[in-house]
Write a structure and sequence with these properties.
This protein is of the alpha+beta class and 421 residues long. It is built from 16 helices and 11 strands. It starts with 23 loop residues before the first strand and ends in a 6-residue tail after the last strand. The relative contact order is 0.18. GO terms for molecular function: heme binding; iron ion binding; monooxygenase activity; oxidoreductase activity, acting on paired donors, with incorporation or reduction of molecular oxygen.
Amino acid sequence: MTDPGNPSTDAVPPPGCPAHPGAVRLGGLEYQQSPSQLYRALRREHGPVAPVLLDGDIPAWLVLGYSELSYVTSHDELFARDSRRWNQWPNIPPDWPLLPFVGYQPSVLFTEGEEHQRRAGVITEALEGVDQFELARECQEIADALIAAFAGSGHAELMSGYAHALPARAVVQMCGMPSSGTDTQQLVDDLRISLDAAEGDDPVAAYGRVGARLAQLVKEKRERPGPDVTSRMLLHPAGLTDEEVVQDLISVIAAAQQPTGNWIGNTLRLLLTDERFALNVSGGRLSVGEALNEVLWLDTPTQNFVGRWAVRDTQLGGRRIRAGDCVVLGLAAANTDPQIWPESHVGAENSAHLSFSNGEHRCPYPAPLLADVMARTAVETLLERLPDLVLAVEPEELTWRPSIWMRGLTALPAEFTPVVQ
């Protein structure tokens, strides 16, 4: 195909590289219930860097080791973000489902060097303008409204009805859109499809609709700025164009919405199924914080991330990586690397996980702090309002979405004593 990156055809690697014999397809039932077992098997067979196949058997490398992933993300001169250098573009069809992830866009995600510093600096300063106490108050109001919708029934499906809904409303409100309504819900649905498509979804079309809606928002804020992230980005002295702001808003909203929703859901699952937390969850704020951090180590919402592209031939984890090869960041695998946890015990008090990535392209400060405000407020408010909340099914009946990129439950049914509003 003729890709957005318009790469040169002479970058195609020799046949079979890196998909040499033994390359593993990323996908299948292993990822739905126990991806950690697959990561262990890959590590045993291939070491810290494994040859893998993406959708359509497109070859790539999956970085499983903590130190190797830290090295990749700390050396942009070797492993860069501009996907136009990928040597596989001639083999990518126009409807390839991962195009929203890797198709080059003029966004902060694909910039490098001084341009990345400029764009990331605008996002950082725009997010720094968010008052964390005000955000917590807004999240609590959103939480109360969501809980009120099901509190009287005595049962709820917490993934769609709460865990995903709360950060979705909070982040669009933070960016200057109404926190609810048909227009907002369509944007949220399209973001989910583009990031974590289910069978029958069209992620490429959904991504296009996201861009169109945010372009409309930018136009509105250019004419009538307000106290929101979008307006601060538009008014920043760096002078971003409307198109640059649209692209970077997509990155901000996508990073805040889907991963934070799964962070909330995965934490609620842990609190409702693990006896270590069951005794002191109600009213025990410390245990909520421990659960949030443990999830980032053991069930991180963003399991894998595409990626980096090798600038030149190099070595990584004993593998020869050729110029233009795609390197997938195995965040979940790195977090559970036995080299850093030799006794298979992850200390929940330790925050050196890679769930927000690492290096210059890590999640920009203060985004992780804002995500923590959303997640912590969501979990604490739910447990305070519904203190006898329990699972409505056996823990083993819970199922995970069949995604190699995001770790999140398909549903989290719960029961509690009905509350009269």
